[in-house]
Design a protein that fits this description.
The chain is mostly helical and 410 residues long. It is built from 14 helices and 4 strands.
């Protein structure tokens, strides 16, 4: 939510020169009203609008950019964007890890997964979406190159690379900029209302087990929006916001996935929590040793230098050697230290728990149940053919045959 509002503010500022604060305020008010009245179903409707807007934006962008944009060949050579770079090779690892693990925390994905009628429908939908997203990302990604080669980016004063696409469109005729601004607000609104609906559903279903009136949950989400908007307006970089959440997910998701395997029935929530926190602690230790002081290690956890630094701190050249954290020059070790450190801390927590259970059992003359299989039965297994039911407003609710999202994962 923070990234969505921050991006909207920056784009409105770049395209129109107006204060993006008012766009953020209006979006929060409008989405809160119609999601409260329409529930999650209204989010599905706006998703269709969002899809149409994306297609329209791409068609308009391809045509107008192709006609109006003029590439400076001197900038192509001087930018050196077509040559191999250290960051390019590092991103082959960083982006899949960051995006894949972060998607586990996106409630909207899970809500749509459980809302699909059959597994076949889910497979068809995700397959179509994969092809569409690949095409969209390819087209939008190339606009960064075009923005640099036409002189639109970095601009004067220099602008963030995350809005290079809109800086390129800013140089187009005014009517194009106006249409793009409207489409941008529509896209941001469609994404933001999905996040609001997901928070309401998760809070009602997972936190309060549908025992608290839904309107109280919606009120809590409204109150959360205020600090979210403040943080978004003060955030210097959308990319940094995403990277922080990616780092948290990269620390916690690998140890969580271990427990999803039926063969690892002995893996418990204690290991997941310890591993997730331990992964972040490993990033801090990595940064402290590499930079030589604890303050820089803490800054690495916030990725204040983003990914665009000429070292290995966000990746890691040689990060973990089984039992010893061995660090050489680098500034990109965070996304290696986080998952590997999380797994190591999770294993250590598992050994500690099993050891304590064994010691307590021995002291009491009882057998340790650390490696006992959990009880199985119709109520404890997740059935792939069952889908979450929905209340009158469209929010998925838990039932005896439809455990909560958190319960399905853990």
């Amino acid at each position: 939510m923070v990234a969505e509002l921050s991006a909207l503010q920056q784009i409105i500022n770049a395209l129109t020169g107006l204060n993006g604060l008012w766009a953020v305020i209006v979006q929060c008010i409008v989405t809160t009203i119609y999601t409260s009245l329409g529930g999650f179903r209204i989010s599905f409707i706006t998703d269709n609008i969002q899809g149409a807007m994306v297609v329209g934006l791409l068609i308009l962008g391809v045509i107008v950019v192709g006609v109006e944009t003029h590439i400076d060949k001197n900038l192509v050579q001087s930018s050196d964007l077509l040559g191999a770079s250290l960051l390019g090779w590092q991103l082959i690892y960083i982006l899949p890890v960051a995006i894949l693990t972060n998607d586990f925390f996106i409630s909207g994905f899970w809500l749509r997964t459980f809302a699909s009628k059959t597994d076949k429908d889910l497979l068809v939908g995700t397959s179509i979406a994969t092809v569409a997203v690949a095409i969209i990302l390819t087209l939008v990604g190339t606009t960064g190159l075009l923005a640099a080669w036409t002189g639109a980016w970095p601009g004067d004063p220099p602008q963030a690379g995350s809005i290079a696409f809109f800086l390129l469109l800013e140089q187009l005729p005014a009517w194009v900029v106006g249409i793009v601004a409207v489409m941008t607000v529509s896209l941001s609104t469609a994404a933001f209302d999905s996040l609001q609906s997901a928070m309401v559903s998760t809070g009602s279903n997972d936190l309060f087990r549908n025992k608290l009136n839904l309107w109280w949950i919606r009120l809590a989400v409204v109150l959360i929006i205020f600090p979210v908007a403040v943080v978004a307006l003060k955030s210097p970089s959308v990319l940094q916001i995403y990277l922080i959440s990616d780092l948290i997910s990269a620390s916690s998701i690998p140890v969580l996935v271990v427990g999803l395997s039926s063969k690892c029935y002995w893996w418990r929530g204690f290991e997941v929590i310890a591993g997730g926190l331990g992964g972040l602690l490993t990033v801090f230790i990595f940064g402290t040793i590499y930079y030589g002081n604890a303050q820089e290690g803490a800054r690495l956890m916030l990725l204040e230098q983003s990914l665009y630094v000429d070292d290995w701190s966000a990746f890691g050249k040689r990060v973990l050697l089984i039992t010893v954290l061995h660090i050489t020059d680098g500034n990109k070790g965070a996304f290696v230290a986080a998952p590997l450190g999380g797994l190591l801390w999770g294993c250590a927590a598992f050994a500690l728990r099993v050891g304590l259970q064994w010691a307590v059992g021995r002291a009491r003359g009882q057998r340790s149940d650390a490696f006992n299989r959990p009880p199985t039965g119709p109520s404890s297994r997740v059935r792939t053919t069952e889908r979450a039911s929905a209340n009158e407003n469209g929010e998925p609710v838990a039932s005896a045959k439809s455990p909560s999202i958190t319960g399905r994962l853990i």
